[in-house]
Amino acid sequence: MRGYFGIGSERISKAMNLGAVLRTAHAFNASFAFSIKAHYKAREVNLADTSKSDTHLPLYEWATLDDMRLPKGCVLVGVELDDRAVDLPSFRHPLNAAYLLGPEKGSLSPEASALCTHLVKIPTRFCVNLSIAAAVVMYDRMISMGGYPPRPVSSSNSIGGPPPTAEWRAPRRR
Question: What is the pTM of this model?
């Protein structure tokens, strides 16, 4: 897959969520992770980050939005349930992106939203856990940018043909 991405959160407060985001970012081959105005106990992060991502994936911890420094050409994409946001399944991911999620019990700050080039939302009835949202975004990026062929139009186009039914019988060997 070409390009790179990072994933992070503004005002994350639960160490277990950060650990899960880091582990998942490591699994999806993120280039970096970050936090802005985070409030958590660092020693608890490792309870969820069982892949020990800190040895494979840089974590940038910025005290304020003004401190945030993204690589040149990196597009900031906010992930937020917002009427202005594009549904994630119809979003074309930038080649080089940093995905910013809000805190566990809240939304991206207006200042953070204003910095984002794009806002996307996961089309759910209500917000999901922060680490789950991060995983969904990374999975969608992988599926849409990872060089996978388009999915078949119907299940009968999948490898192996249609699923067997009561009337279906395997061909006889000769």
Answer: 0.82
Q: Is 166 exposed, middle or buried (0-12, 13-18, 19+ CB in 10 A)?
A: exposed
Q: What is the pLDDT along the chain (174 residues), one digit of tens a residue?
A: 689 999 999 998 888 888 889 889 999 999 999 999 987 655 566 666 666 777 789 989 999 999 999 999 999 999 999 999 999 999 999 999 999 999 988 899 999 999 999 999 999 998 899 999 999 999 999 999 988 887 788 766 555 555 555 554 555 555
Q: Rounded to whole angstroms, how far apart are CA atoms 121 and 125? A: 11
Domain extents in the chain? 4-148
DSSP string, 29-85: T-SEEEEES----HHHHHHH-TT-GGGTS-EEEESSGGG--PPTTPEEEEE---TTS
4-148 adopts what CATH topology? Alpha/beta knot (3.40.1280)
